[in-house]
Every structure is written in structure tokens, then in C-alpha cells.
Amino acid sequence: VVCGTVKAASIITDKWGNREKRTTNAMPYPSTVDDETERPVIKKQYMLSQFGATASCLLPDATVNFAPLLAIQMAPLMMTLVRKGKVTSADYHRVYAICLYLGYVMVFFRLLYPGDYILTKSVGLRSIFMIAFPSSKLRQLMPAMYVWAFNTLLSTIIYPLVLQNAIDAMVYTDQAAKLFFFFVAIGATLRQIVSYAPLFGYTIRFGTVGPPTKPKNGVTTKKVD
């Protein structure tokens, strides 16, 4: 299903789309975002979230599978509202970023508070492994079809048969697994907050103190230390 969807999307893009001006890429960013320093960070976080969303489809848990759905459904709705003049492109980016962030929060709550026996320690570790797998790096070396064909093999064959026992052995108890999930959740969500802060007029710099930053476009943003 994943590989078929990737192939269909590629065919449709080649025939009717534009690989340079696509959906989110074509939406102007808020004036608070510096084009040289902050915009590339936001775009990279968007890209990583999109890879993570596809990777979540390969995991054996329905809650994790559907976690990215809010952002996936909200993006076309917001694009329609932008075209109709109901909201601005800045609103689009802010809502989209929040929805991407909430998808990760949902996954981490599922890992920390499974609520039933289905989501075991092994499934949780496998989820972290697959979502964190550097698919975006592979994409720079090979076509998308090959990347997701490899991810499918990794999730369904290589990980269960070769990697699962070794990785499970590194985390001895369910309590240790939850502690690991907690630190991963804190790191991932903080990274997103820092990346998306310029969309809301804030620039977060840890360990530095200084006046508000002033991007090239002349709009001052608030600085949080």
C-alpha cells in the first residue's frame, strides 16, 4: 500500500504537478520568519514529520497509524480557506505546525500510557526505531520508491527477525522502556517547539541572552531564552 501510494503520487506529480511549488512549499511564510536562517529549519521539520507520518503506517498499532491524520486532513482544508480568502498563508503554516506537533504528542502518550496489553515494550521500541530511522537521508541517495520499499522490508522482516531481540535486550524492564520513551518524547517535542516558534513570532535560543532578533524582512521577533 505504501509503495503503491508513493508510485501513484509520483506519477500524478509528474503529469499534473510541480516538484518545486508543491502544496506547503508554495504557501508564503509569515513575515516573522527569516528566509535564510529560520525558514530552512521549519521546512526540514515539515519534511521529517512527513517521513515520520509515512513510517507510522508500517507499525502494528492503529493509534500510532492514525496519529498523523489530523495534519494530513487539516492541510487541504487550510489551503482551501487560504484560496477563498478566509485565512492567511501565515495561519495555514501555524495550524499545520500545531497539527504536526500534536501527532507526535499523540504517539508519545500512546507509548507512555498504552492502556492495554497490545502495545508492548517491543512494539514501542519498534515504533521509536522506525519513526527515527533516517529515511530523509536515504531519499537523497535514491528514489522515494526504493526508500519506502526498504522501510517496508525493515519494518516487516529485518527488524522482527534480526534487530528486535537485540534492541529489546538493551531495555530490561517496562519501567526502563517508559523512561526511555519519556526522554525521547521530551527531546522530539522540544525540537519541534524550537523549530516552529518563528511561525508565532518567537525565536528561541538556548543559553544566549540578547535583544529581539530582526530578520531581513524588517519584522522584529520576540526572543525567548
Provide an overview of this structure:
By secondary structure, the chain is mainly α. The termini are far apart. It is built from 10 helices and 2 strands. The longest helix is centred in the last third of the chain and has 27 residues. The chain has a two-stranded parallel ribbon with strand order 1-2. It is 66% helix and 3% strand.
Topology overview:
Elements: H1 2-16, H2 23-26, H3 39-56, H4 62-66, H5 69-83, H6 89-112, H7 121-132, H8 135-139, H9 144-170, H10 174-196, E1 202-204, E2 222-224
Parallel strand pairs: 1-2
- Gyration radius over CA: 19 Å
The tally of beta strands, per DSSP, is 2
Number of helices in the DSSP assignment: 10
| Helical residues, percent | 55-70%
Unreliable residue runs: 208-212, 215-221
**Would you list the SSEs in sequence order as H and E?**
HHHHHHHHHHEE
Shape: globular
Strand content: under 5%
- Order of strands across the biggest sheet? 1-2
Distance from N terminus to C terminus (CA atoms, Å) equals 45 Å
Question: What is the structural class?
Answer: mainly alpha
Chain-averaged pLDDT: 81
Could you give a short account of the major beta sheet? 2 strands, parallel
